[in-house]
Design a protein that fits this description.
By secondary structure, this protein is of the alpha/beta class. The protein has helices at residues 20-28, 36-43, 56-73, 91-101, 124-137, 153-163, 194-219, 228-240, 319-322, 361-364, 373-383, 392-410, 427-435, and strands spanning 10-14, 46-50, 79-84, 111-117, 143-146, 177-185, 250-255, 273-279, 289-295, 302-309, 326-332, 336-344, 352-360, 417-419. It has a nine-stranded mixed β-sheet, with helices on both faces. A three-stranded parallel β-sheet has the order 3-4-5, with helices on one face. The N and C termini lie far apart (66 Å). Bound molecules: 6-O-phosphono-beta-D-glucopyranose. 6-O-phosphono-beta-D-glucopyranose (BG6) binds next to loops. 6-O-phosphono-beta-D-glucopyranose is lined by residues 148, 186, 205, 303.
Length: 450
């Protein structure tokens, strides 16, 4: 309901020769669950222009298509949003073309904004170079560096959870938290994307961006306000407080069969799995390991944050044997938050067991449709809200953390160990988690001696 369909016009642009109906036909296949009437109405908003990524001719055609629509629609304003789903190597030339040929002509109500997808570079230097190139063409408030994890419901919930609940304020620190895991698992491999993936690997594909953004929201201090700049200031601060990563706190893996993809070189050392411990050097987190773990071709598909609390001092119940309090935020699938608690096992015996305080979104919010991450973030761009987008200095700080490690991997100094597809990943990763303090919970029942 935010935009009326008459106010939206979508133009696809690529090198392929295609008619408007050709593009509509391709899109139709993805529009599921809507009535035929809505689908046709939506498809009528779509046009297509073909052209190369570095020739003025194509972008002039694109501009004409947009301008003709704006004139016929007579809206008096021209709000142009460009979404680049392209290899970053062509970002500079495409942005230059947009800047030269396709900017919104009205300054009063109009705007031009550009959404760019990761990977923003391969390391600190290349990312900085890309940032400077784009920075010469667009102001920071015109550039939207998208990280779709920031559009996920439970990621957006993190700020509210941490700063609107008295319960968590005194607990969220080194005095009470033993360790924090941020985990991403996929139960499928690179599936035909091997050529792309091998250039980047799991750290650049998932950890340096998606998991690190989640880390920021879990670890940062309270922002002065909800203004995008205030939130991003705190993210930069916590990123700058991360210590250099130690080689002995890294496990890399590659699933067996990854190199069967013909586009992957036979001697590839690219990790499809990584577990990396981050240590934050500040008053709140000194000594608390943040274990960032991501892997492809594992036994399940899941993304979650696990905050594990310290053992109870002066414990009279031997709770330790059962497991610690653990607060789990499951980002997907089936969004949920649950707290593992030790309770008296109901019944005549004085026995204890692990149970859960459980808030499953599917149960609690049955009638609410949780928006797709991209749906929300594109709407934010239209509204001009950069709160959930990555600022240039944030990106730089993120690359600063991982670049030395990535260079060592690229130089073959750190090797990926092989793991079976469909497994939990390398056993060395579980050993590392345990070594730095993570304790598996067993729900073990203890009955005290009489
Ligand atoms: C993308 C990665 O950014 O995120 C993919 O490039 C990955 O490799 C995907 O599969 C995961 O997104 P989601 O939302 O399915 O967890």
């Amino acid at each position: 309901g935010f935009l009326q369909s008459g106010e939206v016009h979508i133009v696809g642009y690529a090198r392929t020769n295609l008619s408007d109906d050709g593009l509509r036909g391709r899109i139709r296949a993805y529009l599921k669950g809507a009535s035929e009437e809505h689908v046709s109405e939506f498809l009528q908003l779509i046009k297509y222009v073909s052209g190369s990524y570095d020739s003025g001719e194509g972008f002039e055609k694109l501009n004409k298509e947009i301008s003709d629509y704006e004139m016929s629609n007579n809206s008096g304003s021209s709000r142009r949003l460009f979404y680049l789903a392209l290899p970053p190597s062509v970002y500079p030339s495409v942005c230059k073309m947009i800047r030269t040929y396709c900017m919104s002509p009205t300054s009063r109500f109009g705007w031009t904004r550009v959404i760019v997808e990761k990977p923003f570079g391969r390391d600190l230097d290349s990312a900085e170079e890309l940032s400077s190139q784009l920075g010469e063409l667009f102001e920071e408030d015109q550039l939207y560096r998208i990280d779709h994890y920031l559009g996920k419901e439970l990621v957006q919930n993190l700020l509210v959870l941490r700063f609107a609940n008295r319960l968590f304020l005194p607990l969220w620190n080194r005095d009470n938290v033993d360790n924090i895991q941020i985990v991403f698992r996929e139960d499928f491999g690179t599936d035909g994307r091997g050529g792309y993936f091998d250039q980047y690997g799991i750290i650049r594909d998932i950890i340096q961006n998606h998991l690190l953004q989640v880390f920021c929201l879990v670890a940062m201090e309270k922002p002065v306000s909800l203004k995008p700049e205030h939130i991003r200031d705190e993210k930069v601060k916590v990123l700058q407080s991360v210590n250099p990563i130690k080689d002995e706190e890294v496990v890399l893996g590659q699933y067996q069969g990854y190199k069967d993809d013909p586009t992957v070189p036979d001697d590839s050392n690219t990790p499809t799995f990584a577990s990396i411990v981050l240590r934050v050097h500040n008053e709140r987190w000194e000594g608390v390991p943040f274990i960032l773990k991501a892997g492809k071709a594992l036994n399940s598909r899941k993304a979650e944050i696990r905050v594990q609390f310290k053992d109870v001092p002066g414990d009279i119940f031997k709770c330790k044997k059962q497991g610690r309090n653990e607060f789990v935020i499951r980002l997907q699938p089936s969004e949920a938050m649950y707290m593992k608690l030790t309770v008296k096992k109901p019944g005549l015996e004085m026995a204890t067991e692990q149970s859960e305080l459980d808030l499953s979104y599917g149960m609690r919010y049955q009638d609410v449709k949780i928006p797709e991450a991209y749906e929300r973030l594109i709407l934010d761009t239209i509204r001009g809200d950069q709160q959930h987008f990555v600022r240039r200095d944030e990106l730089k700080a993120a690359w600063q953390i991982f670049t030395p490690l990535l260079h060592d991997i690229d130089a073959g100094k750190l090797k990926a160990v092989s793991y079976k597809p469909g497994s939990r990943g390398p056993k060395e990763a579980d050993e590392l988690s345990e070594k730095v303090g993570y304790m598996q919970t067993h729900g073990y029942i203890w009955i005290p001696p009489t």
